[in-house]
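Teaching note: in complex prediction, the entire set of molecules is handled at once rather than each chain in isolation. The prompt given to students was simply: 'Predict the structure of this complex.' The entities are:
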Amino acid sequence: MKTLPLAAAVTCLATIAGAETPVLTVMTYDSFASEWGPGPAIEKGFEATCGCDLRFVTAGDGAALLARVQLEGAASEGDVVVGLDTNLTAAATESGLFAPHGQPAVTGLPVAWEDAQFLPFDWGWFAFVHDKAKLPNPPASLEALAASDVKILIQDPRSSTPGLGLVMWVKAAYGDRAPDIWAALADNIVTVTPGWSEAYGMFLEGEADMVLSYTTSPAYHLIAESDDSKAAAPFAEGHYLQVEVAGLLAGSDQPELGKAFLAYLVGDAAQSVIPTTNWMYPANVPAAGLPEGFGTLIQPAKSLLFSSDEAGALREAAVAEWQAALSR
Amino acid sequence: MASRAVALIPALLALIIVALTLGSAAVTAVWGGGGGLGPADWAALRFTLLQAALSAAVSALLAVPLARALVRRRFAGRGLLLRLMAAPFLLPVVVAVLGLLAVFGRSGPVNSLLAVLGLPALSVFGLHGVVLAHVFLNLPLVTRMLVHGWQAIPAERFRLAQALGMGPGPQFRHLELPMLRATLPGAAALVFLLCLTSFAVALTLGGGPKASTVELAIYQALRFDFLPGKAATLAAVQFALCATVTLAAMRLARVEGFGAGLGREVEMPAPGGWRRGVDALMIVLAAGFLLAPLLAVVWRGAPGVVALPPSVGWAAARSLVVAVLSAVLAAVAALVLMQARVAGRRWAELAAMLPLAASGLVMGTGLFLLVQPVAPVERLALPVTMLVNATLALPYLFRLLLPEALRLEADYARLAESLSLRGAARLRLLVLPRLARPLGFGTGLAAALSMGDLGVIALFAGERGVTLPLLVQRLTGAYRMEAAASAALLLVGLSFALFWLFDRWGARHAAA
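The expected output is the structure of the full assembly:
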């Protein structure tokens, strides 16, 4: 029972410290705000111009982030939310907690994008990543993968963003034939992990030939570890996109500051930090171009993406199909 | 008046626990509205029960010969082995899974050996993999509980049995079986309940959605579908299961009446012949099974420890403070409830076991809803984490203390009454010295568990409240798997150091 006075003391101190400058609270997922993510550089850059104190409030991943936004509801201290994706924006819109962002459209996306509430800040293609030496001839399509005996690690669509991305990918490429593809893929799947990092870690330990990740994953190994052994396999059906978006909370007490932050987020300074911290493509290509090493990545000829409404309508049935096919 | 007020403390404590567990679920339910269960949820429930039952049965069956061998054999490094064997239980789940994969995985030594012998490769993915991991995590705990049980049989009984010419068989029936009947149901129930809320192990090693557990369904309901009402319904199902199993274990467990001994260290006869060989084999196999994945964790993490970023130091300090405070809080609560239970109040046991089936996610969500109107949650992240961790560790402590406490009461209550030894004096002079061993072990366990816990802090943490497990998660999320392995090793090392300190304190203060 000693915790209550202690907590009260901590609260008081924090209130005193933050009383003078306006505070902008940015809600985002964990790895965005971590010291290896884009968060620290963006915080420093924005605070240099805004005369404000930028604070991050974090949740585990995009889905946890939206859950937290919904839990806090209108009473939230948050001003801006950074890190939802197209599978979440339908639910986010429905919550009625978001306001129009008022920013010009971004230009670096491989698809057209119109949304008054959600502003893309980065994007990437889902892909299966492999080791070039161990698997010199990877399958060239989802269907070829399903027919092969290549072992893969995937994530659970019920708890992970890439996991849901793959379910959408199969649905976008095969429509009503999706359950057949999943049934054929079943014997390729070593296991289904709760999140991206478990699967990726197990892949690096040699538990499978390929892992579901992003086309940009090999860039991390190349740039941060000078290791060019990893590659993403181009698939003939095209690759499903993940578009990460930011939005302004309607209940924000700093809407102007929030808009200024969104403008900064898609501006040159922040966008040139994104590729080597979030390991995704920037939503607006920076003036200096993409970092060296991104040029070696595969460029899928075709991008697949359901609109926010389509994704919202399809998700539950598509996950149920996945579950039924793999539970047999 | 004062004594009446003191008598109210355990009831108050039980109420707090009920509020933290059932109350937080109720808040979540009311906030989200009710929610029905679908066929997938029932399938998840079936799988959850199956894997938990198998894991508990295998852990309990293996623990009996292992604990017996460890109690009656003396060999160099026995004390070290006993302490090291607790380590798997202290591992963060993700680290444990990677350690197991390093040994039993596709490119691990077991499969390399099989390949050399021309045998087909072994896959750890599937129901057997889930059970393997759960046994790896829980066998040490059950073994330690049984070792305590064996050590609590008065040395005089073994001498008497020998004087009467009892062989190992009759001795087992008359001395050891009654002890097992009192200890094993509770230990098995603990493992069962622990596996009931398994999430990452079941999913990672289960091989696919067939291996979905109720906890995953809760996660899905809370995070992906955002149906807090459904999550609360699922949590209620878990509670019902927990209560049933706890009650069943309470009925099964009977207290043996050995009468008091002189409290000497047990000297259990160590029969020779084939029994010696079996004991040796059991110890070698168990040590290999439990220690090899640990070695893998050290092997992977050790090279990068010196290169860890400075933020790791702060995260480690935060984790240590939270761990020690929550362990002490849990120990005090466990002692209070244990005293109430010994005095015949059975609800105290139920209250103490309740947190075991509490879904950390639902508890965190409920507390989040409660705390949020009062203060920004990230400012209360550490105190709330401490409170929740203390609550979650309570069942282990209680379960470790109870058999000893009941035996103590059976053996010494009349003596203590005749000496009018009551209240604080009784606690200090009689109870604490006799319970120091399980108390030290349990408090160490609580500290280590709190150290490795990720659940609640992940929901509450802001920029500044990062703990070591959260940092490990952030490192893996940023592709830095090697740094994560090193930070995880640091986490395991600190958890183990805390556990070791408390455990040694208990052993040192144990009445000799």
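Point out the following to students. Residues 220 and 279 of chain A are 7 Å apart (CA to CA). Chain A touches chain B through 64 residues (CB under 8 Å).
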